[in-house]
Write a structure and sequence with these properties.
The complex is a heterodimer of chains A (about 350) and B (about 350).
Chain A (H helix, E strand, L loop, with lengths): L1 E7 L5 H25 L4 H10 L7 H27 L7 H19 L6 H28 L3 H21 L35 H19 L1 H11 L1 H6 L4 H28 L10 H11 L4 H24 L4 H23 E7 L4
Chain B lengths: L1 H17 L11 E6 L9 H16 L3 E6 L6 H12 L4 E4 L5 H10 L4 E5 L8 E6 L1 H15 L4 E6 L4 H17 L4 E6 L6 H13 L4 E4 L5 H9 L2 E6 L10 E7 L2 H13 L6 E4 L6 E2 L9 H15 L10 E2 L5 E3 L7 H5 L15
Parallel strand pairs in B: 1-2, 1-3, 3-4, 4-5, 5-11, 6-7, 6-8, 8-9, 9-10
Antiparallel strand pairs in B: 10-12, 13-14
Classes of the chains: A mainly alpha (about 350), B alpha/beta (about 350).
Chain lengths: ~350, ~350
């Protein structure tokens, strides 16, 4: 009987390690095209709108300026997540750390309002780093002390964070001049803490600079620092890592702290700039999309940068497709989700090869 | 797509020239954009705004082109989507949710030639008008019905967030219910969400377990109506006519009917008379509609409710007619007077008799 088998490769395939993301993008375009066609839209036009309008056409200058705004939080969060993912530490709750980081920065800014001084911005960044880090410490400590799954705890804490956000947006952080409506003061209109474009109209705010710095730092850490070596070894061979003197508990704490802090900072940069207001709907899923970005970028800082830009294109182009072609919002999210789905499926090919034939020899 | 944006981009003059029409000050073709906070299939608030868009399309025919974007979060993405609509050549853009307020003001400042209309907010500009509906007028009608229909004297009320619009709705319903039935009491659950079928169903269940036999809601899903139908109790639809989800349970609904407003404002774009304004429209203007009351309700009670509805439509009765006291016993509307709009729009208190605490 002819059958399909998976056979473990002696060595992981380098072709598939780097080829899988490209094939996954192609497969997503094909499957997404089929989905758009089933929705009654011209698939070629839909794909072209998503991937080309941000770069061409008469409004390209505006769309291009939106790419860094969308990519920055994704890259910042994904760079942190990748450290843990490499070591087999699964922080799924970056979304919650993003929210708590933003709220920590906002708490400082709103408490000191209307104090002047650009140094306040630095204090707020520090607060957001600390807030995101502390939120990530909850699953880290539970993991190290009690062996509780960090996957579940970090994920559940997203919902806790969202409820804290909702409660503050309609309660303690509500704009006293807002006629009772939910939502805080607009922090992007508070000059001391506003995270505006450094060069007007480019979309490059301080969060973009931070994202680029995090990529650089991640690259140096992984290639030149002993901690980077420990992370890599712990992920590839946990037993060997112990012999090499890696303390697993310490590694969990460090990786969770780093990813939590970066997610927290991403939240603050977003809140003080593009978003402006602490509102119930402040978070839009960057913490989850960053997981796609991390894997699409092969957990490699430079790869994450490229993957972040690609996902940003699907966001910006996807919104264009929503208004110009009337695509439903859910179809764009499905399109992004397919990317991770195909990538994970194709990743099997890195470690295994497909054999088609009779099951004759064992 | 290219051709569509070309047409829109070159706007009225080119179209008029191509059609061989003389150039006039008025526009011959208008493109209107709409953004909705939720899905147009919510069968509630967003659905009704989209019905208003369709009404406008039916009214103006080919002269009006519309685009819409649904599920726009009230966060950073809203500003980009508004900008995109303006860049795509929309002449007028309707931002239909409160949380779009600051993004609308920001984008309007960058596109002085595009007109913006923001629903339920309070910030205007030369090219930003605001509009809102007097939802509380419908509450007075259903409050009376609820007060008469309850046997346990407990009315359950599911509410999203404590803002004046919602609080004045609770108060208007309570004033009417107490008038109809002096023993009535409200049980109120805040879910901090405008459209969340799961939370709404949970809240409805909790209210029924606490003894409520009539449900009201200021949230947008039909989940409470569906539950009321299963349990054989009464409920009232919100934003859209929800009778299909509870043929027996749904007494009536408070329907948002935006069509007349959208037709009026887009019409002003055609004749060049658009100017910023601040309009708060209700049952007299047909923007709030209470459809026919369920035939399973006692005819006498139906007639009472119809009379209240007609008296509001004819402006003979105001749901906030004094004497009215706040929860703490202090008077806020004197006998024979009616609450002014400023009082209503800043209403952050319950009226006397409500046995609950307003979340801060």
């Amino acid at each position: 009987m002819a059958m399909i088998r998976l056979e473990r490769r002696a060595d992981p395939s380098n072709f598939w390690r780097y080829g899988a993301p490209l094939v996954a993008v192609l497969a997503t375009i094909i499957a997404g095209g089929i989905m758009f066609a089933l929705l009654g839209k011209n698939p070629v036009e839909a794909i072209r709108t998503i991937f080309w309008t941000p770069f061409t056409g008469r409004n390209a200058a505006y769309y291009l300026s939106q790419l860094p705004i969308k990519a920055a939080p994704l890259v910042l969060i994904a760079t942190g997540l990748a450290l843990g993912f490499r070591a087999g530490i699964w922080n799924i709750g970056a979304e919650g750390q993003y929210v708590i980081g933003a709220l920590s920065g906002a708490a400082v800014a709103l408490a000191l309002y209307p104090m002047e001084g650009r140094w306040l911005f630095i204090i707020c960044i520090a607060a957001s780093l600390a807030g995101g880090m502390l939120w990530a410490m909850i699953p880290a400590v539970l993991k190290v002390r009690l062996g509780v799954s960090e996957i579940l705890v970090s994920l559940m804490l997203v919902y806790v964070a969202e409820n804290i956000l909702a409660s503050l947006a309609v309660g303690a952080m509500k704009n006293p001049e807002g006629y009772g409506f939910p939502g805080s003061r607009n922090l992007s209109q508070y000059p001391a803490v506003a995270n505006l474009d450094i060069w007007s109209g480019t979309g490059i705010h301080w969060g973009v600079i931070a994202a680029l710095l995090s990529v650089l730092a991640g690259q140096i850490l992984l290639s030149r620092h002993i901690l980077g070596f420990q992370i890599q070894v712990a992920g590839l061979a946990p037993r060997a890592a112990r012999f090499a003197g890696v303390a697993p508990g310490r590694l969990v704490m460090v990786c969770m702290a780093a990813s939590g802090a970066l997610a927290g900072a991403a939240g603050w940069f977003e809140l003080a700039g593009p978003s402006g207001i602490v509102s119930v709907d402040f978070n839009v899923g960057y913490g989850f999309t960053a997981i796609i970005v991390a894997f699409l970028g092969r957990l490699h800082p430079v790869g994450i940068l490229l993957a972040g830009v690609l996902l940003a294109v699907t966001y910006v182009g996807g919104d264009v497709a929503r208004s110009s072609l009337g695509l439903p919002a859910g179809s764009i999210q499905s399109f992004q989700g397919m990317l991770l789905f195909f990538l994970l499926a194709l990743d099997v090919l890195t470690a295994y090869r497909i054999r088609i034939g009779r099951k004759a020899r064992a | 797509m290219k051709r569509r944006s070309f047409l829109a981009g070159t706007a009225a003059a080119a179209t008029a020239a191509a059609a061989g029409l003389p150039a006039r000050a008025q526009a011959d073709k208008i493109k209107a954009g709409f953004i909705y906070v939720g899905p147009i299939t919510d069968m509630g608030y967003n659905y009704q705004h989209n019905v208003g868009r369709e009404d406008a399309m039916a009214h103006f025919g080919d002269a009006l082109e519309t685009v819409y974007v649904e599920n726009v979060p009230e966060g950073p993405d809203c500003e980009r989507i508004l900008t995109q609509l303006a860049l795509d050549g929309c002449d007028i853009i309707f931002a239909t949710s409160f949380g779009f307020m600051d993004p609308t003001i920001n984008v309007a400042a960058k596109f002085p030639d595009v007109k913006f209309e923001h629903a339920t907010g309070f910030k205007t500009a030369d090219n930003v008008a605001i509009y809102n509906a007097r939802f509380y007028e419908g509450r007075a009608v259903i409050g009376h019905l609820a007060g008469k229909l309850t046997k346990s004297n407990q009315i359950g009320y599911i509410v999203p967030v404590p803002i004046p619009e919602v609080i004045m709705g609770i108060n208007a319903a309570f004033i009417a219910a107490r008038k109809a039935n002096p023993d009535v009491q409200f049980k109120i659950i805040w879910i901090y969400d405008w459209h969340n079928p799961q939370k709404e169903a949970d809240a409805a269940k909790a209210l029924v377990e606490q003894g409520c036999d009539v449900l009201m809601q200021h949230t947008d899903s039909n989940a409470p109506i569906t539950l009321a139908e299963e349990l054989g109790i009464h409920a009232f639809g919100q934003a859209a006519d929800m009778s299909a989800y509870g043929p027996n349970a749904c007494v009536t609904s408070i329907v948002d009917n935006w069509g007349p407003y959208y037709i009026e404002r887009i019409g002003m774009m055609f004749d060049g008379s658009w100017a910023t304004s601040d309009q708060w429209l209700g049952m007299p203007e047909g923007v709030i509609v209470v459809p026919e009351i369920n035939a399973n309700i006692d005819p006498e009670l139906r007639a009472e409710a119809d009379a209240i509805r007609d008296s509001i439509i004819n402006r003979e009765y105001h749901p906030f007619t004094g004497p009215l006291n706040k929860q703490d016993g202090t008077e806020f509307v004197a006998a024979g007077e009616v609450a002014d709009d400023g009082t209503l729009l800043n209403m952050m208190f319950y009226v006397e008799g409500i046995d609950a605490e307003l979340p801060s």
